[in-house]
């Protein structure tokens, strides 16, 4: 029996704890750039999970939240572009590499428009909200918390001029979008949001619920 052709999935070049950036530079995998890339990759996967649950909703969430679903598709593509930007140190790349990996600030404007649209359909916030509101909402909340970590790991990369500031702005705005999206999903599915209520002296904190 003929041996299968070697897969291109593995190269063995990273077996000693190093990997290559887009400009060809080799760095250890614990470098701040790879920390940020890993967090953004995890964020993208978490949005994929949230997207799946929004689409599988039995009450028409996919059809009635076209903007939300479309937005998630676009966001996943944008996160791939953010990864390319982070993997291309801005102070040590060719003009063509910089041009090919430039992250357009117009994506931030689009996010803000989606946030405005979703938030205008939600009741005002008067309490802290606990991750809740059904599967779609909970997974969007999880993506939001991962987004915050991706933002934190990207800060030192931007400060070192290894990535564009627009990347950081986008991640900051994306966490706001995911928060609004989580609340909107709960509202659409008529599921309860858990609200935090601070404990009074000598009493435990309690959780209140509210259907959006």
TrEMBL record:
<protein>
    <recommendedName>
        <fullName>Corrinoid adenosyltransferase MMAB</fullName>
    </recommendedName>
</protein>
<comment type="similarity">
    <text>Belongs to the Cob(I)alamin adenosyltransferase family.</text>
</comment>
<feature type="compositionally biased region" description="Polar residues">
    <location>
        <begin position="1"/>
        <end position="11"/>
    </location>
</feature>
<dbReference type="GO" id="GO:0005524">
    <property type="term" value="F:ATP binding"/>
</dbReference>
<dbReference type="InterPro" id="IPR029499">
    <property type="entry name" value="PduO-typ"/>
</dbReference>
<comment type="subunit">
    <text>Homotrimer.</text>
</comment>
<keyword id="KW-0547">Nucleotide-binding</keyword>
<comment type="function">
    <text>Converts cob(I)alamin to adenosylcobalamin (adenosylcob(III)alamin), a coenzyme for methylmalonyl-CoA mutase, therefore participates in the final step of the vitamin B12 conversion. Generates adenosylcobalamin (AdoCbl) and directly delivers the cofactor to MUT in a transfer that is stimulated by ATP-binding to MMAB and gated by MMAA.</text>
</comment>
<feature type="region of interest" description="Disordered">
    <location>
        <begin position="1"/>
        <end position="22"/>
    </location>
</feature>
<dbReference type="Pfam" id="PF01923">
    <property type="entry name" value="Cob_adeno_trans"/>
</dbReference>
<keyword id="KW-0067">ATP-binding</keyword>
<keyword id="KW-0808">Transferase</keyword>
<dbReference type="InterPro" id="IPR016030">
    <property type="entry name" value="CblAdoTrfase-like"/>
</dbReference>
<feature type="compositionally biased region" description="Basic and acidic residues">
    <location>
        <begin position="13"/>
        <end position="22"/>
    </location>
</feature>
<dbReference type="InterPro" id="IPR036451">
    <property type="entry name" value="CblAdoTrfase-like_sf"/>
</dbReference>
<dbReference type="GO" id="GO:0008817">
    <property type="term" value="F:corrinoid adenosyltransferase activity"/>
</dbReference>
<feature type="domain" description="Cobalamin adenosyltransferase-like">
    <location>
        <begin position="9"/>
        <end position="185"/>
    </location>
</feature>
<dbReference type="GO" id="GO:0009235">
    <property type="term" value="P:cobalamin metabolic process"/>
</dbReference>
